[in-house]
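Sorry to interrupt, but I need a hand with the structure work. Please put the record directly below this note.
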Amino acid sequence: MKEIGEQHISEPGLVVLDITAADEDTLRLVVAQLEERWATSGPALVRRVPGRAGVTSRVYADIRRTGVEDG
């Protein structure tokens, strides 16, 4: 994964989350739940790292802003 740049965490409330799960379905469910709570970068590229269990993804979030609003 790319290095976390200063712009990603330049102010309070901005976070970078590296998520590892057993499978893609679980990872996507976690990201969807985060999107409902906070403004996020959205569905991220899922990666498999040779020699490591599970799948990994990175999500950028702004916890100061809410996520998906009910229609």
Q: What stands out?
A: The chain has one helix and three strands.
